[in-house]
What does this fold into?
Amino acid sequence: MNQPFETITPAPSHPAALPFMVRMRDDVRLATDVYLPGGESSAPPGPTILIRLPYDKCGTYTQLPLIADYFTTRGYRVAVQDVRGKFRSQGETILFTNEVHDGYDTIEWITHQPWSDSVVGMWGDSYYGYTQWAAVASGHPALRAIAPRVTGTELGQVLDHGNGTRDVEQGIHLSYMATHFVDNDTYAWEPDPETRPLIAPFEDFFRTLGRRSPSFDIAFPHGHDGLLRRWPEGHPFDQRAIPVLQTIGWYDNCAPWQWHDIAELARRPDWAANQYLLIDAIDHENHHITQAPYDDTTDHDANEDAYRALLPTYLDPALEFFDIFLRRQGNTTQLPRVRWHLVHGDGPELHTDTSWPPVNTEPLTLHLTPAGEPPTGTTPGALTPTKPTTSSTGTWTHDPDSPIPSPTDNAFAYLRTNPRLHDWSKREDVLVFDAEPTTQTLDLTGPVSLTLTLSTTGPSTHLFTKLLDVHPSGEAELVAHGRVHTESPESRLTVSLGQVGYRLRPGHRLRLHLHSSDFPEFVLHPGTADNPWLAVRTERTVQSIRLGGEAGAHLTLTTGTSERLNPQG
It folds into this structure.
């Protein structure tokens, strides 16, 4: 059954904004609002912060008039632009493809305005973090610094890990194109996850709407957006390096793309010298672990007063960064190379370091071990620092007709509810491994990975891994998670669970979940070789991992203390 939808049209212009239709090289004009210090159109020349986004520059979702006001009170000029084909801007509505040239042309226009001193920085989250990297790829010399948040140059792409493995596609991937990149408006709609094939609700939606998304039709059925050309002038990392402040969220569902960028930049000396990291305990929508869970009075997505209260934490790091690199106030020695939040640490304060992972960390290996009987969906195993002396297997079943439900209906706002995951441990299609409770504080500060040999009775499979903190009460919360799609019935692989900054408190224990679905956040594997979006027929599959011996599965953590789990061995 087709789900209802709501059409989101442009909100009224803000009275403080000076509206312009900025001409691009092909004569298409993009709607741009300019905010000047004191609201004066005769403001003297100064540095400009450019924000380019597809979410309505006047709307309440992004609250950009409030953000522009915050920036202008610090002396910056602010230019906010609807990207091509969105809301008040002209031109074709298509994902990624035009952002490089449009970014260059907009910056060029800014440099010719009487209020500009030809110094430009860029700021923004998610897609308007991506447009910053697109502007870097354009090579415009006036762009001096960027502050991308919760984003990445490969945003939306299914990352290929090599060796026959890749990321598992997020369910939002096609939904985003189908609702945000049809035409100038945006459509609030979600597909019915009960309908098969999974693609059917999209076709119903397009028929009801009376038009289609060009981006959707380019990307599907290929399963990725690689045919949407992102970098006509070459990759941004191959351009001149400029200072970049990357804000990453421990709970951001888009974090894998950003960590992928950070690792690549660290391998390039010119970019590594210009990269600064701010790693906070936030999700994609800027909810923070110290305030979770939220309600309508505390959630900035629902309450403007809460949004205003958020602005200093949200914007001050970027302003400090721009003051140094755009206005030349202060020097780089004042700016920590890395700032990061320790979840369940000593409060909201940020730690500072010269690198990530921090210095003085060391690896901790925990082996996946039988706890008596071989682990199955009904028999848990153990996490121990000692390798099992004998070999065995752990198994679980994947049933596409009864998938494991995703813990939240909005992965972008994970911390709004900060769901507890202990009930997932009771499922027969989840393999569970428990460590002993800690006797002292254990800080996890760096990468987490799982190395294992995985077999499936199907032609391929998905593996989801979740590392949990189990409280003395028995409730469990997320520490880290990873996933991988394997192309063969048996694979030796290392699965990244990402990076963590997490304090495991005395009396708490680590738990590892292994399973093969997380739906609808991630596309459901049908258990067959069919395209998962088109599959109608499904098959149950059995997954197994090796425990003990040379190919035994083990979890590798990065710790900031010498404390070990299960010290009794």
About this structure: Confidence is low (pLDDT under 50) at residues 562-569. The two ends are 55 Å apart (CA to CA). The longest helix spans residues 304-325. Residues 75 and 479 are 40 Å apart (CA to CA).
